[in-house]
Amino acid sequence: MEKDSKQLQERFDLDRDGTIDMKEWERARLEARREVQRRRGPRDVAPQRSASDPTVEGIPILRQPRDGRPFMLANAIPETVDKQLLVGGWVFLFFSLYCVAGFVLALK
């Protein structure tokens, strides 16, 4: 870690005062971004977007669709999520009916 710090200072400390100020740090960040883009290649570099586009610097922003379509964020494929929700719904319905039946029997 200390070796990396020394390398950073040698590379980006332009005024050689021993610290990396904000201007030098921004230069380091810009060079890091360029290096990542160079390694990824042109296919992964996002074009500039307009203000109405749901991305920020090529990073997708997840939000509800503007046209009113259903929106759900999940870590599984839709078919699996559908099946889980369906099973959960049936379990909830069965449990609810069981509770209602128990309540009715308790009132008698």
Overview of this protein structure:
This protein is mainly α. The protein has two domains: 1-63, no CATH class; 72-108. It is built from three helices and two strands, in the order ααββα. The chain has helices spanning 2-12, 22-40, 78-107, and strands at 55-56, 59-60. A two-stranded antiparallel sheet has the order 1-2. Strand 1 and strand 2 form a beta hairpin. The N and C termini lie far apart (75 Å).
Summarize the structure.
This protein has 108 residues and is mostly helical. It contains 3 helices and 2 strands; from the N terminus they run ααββα.
Q: Helix- and strand-based class?
A: mainly alpha
User: Could you spell the SSE succession in H and E letters?
Assistant: HHEEH
The helix count comes to 3
**Whole-number tally of structural domains:** 2
What gyration radius follows from the Cα positions, in whole Å?
A: 28 Å
- Oligomer kind: single chain
Number of DSSP-assigned strands: 2
**N-end to C-end Cα span:** 75 Å
Shape: elongated
Q: Which strand order spans the largest sheet, edge to edge or round the barrel?
A: 1-2
Q: The biggest beta sheet, please?
A: 2 strands, antiparallel
- Which whole number gives the mean pLDDT? 80
The helicity comes to 55-70%
Amount of beta strand = under 5%
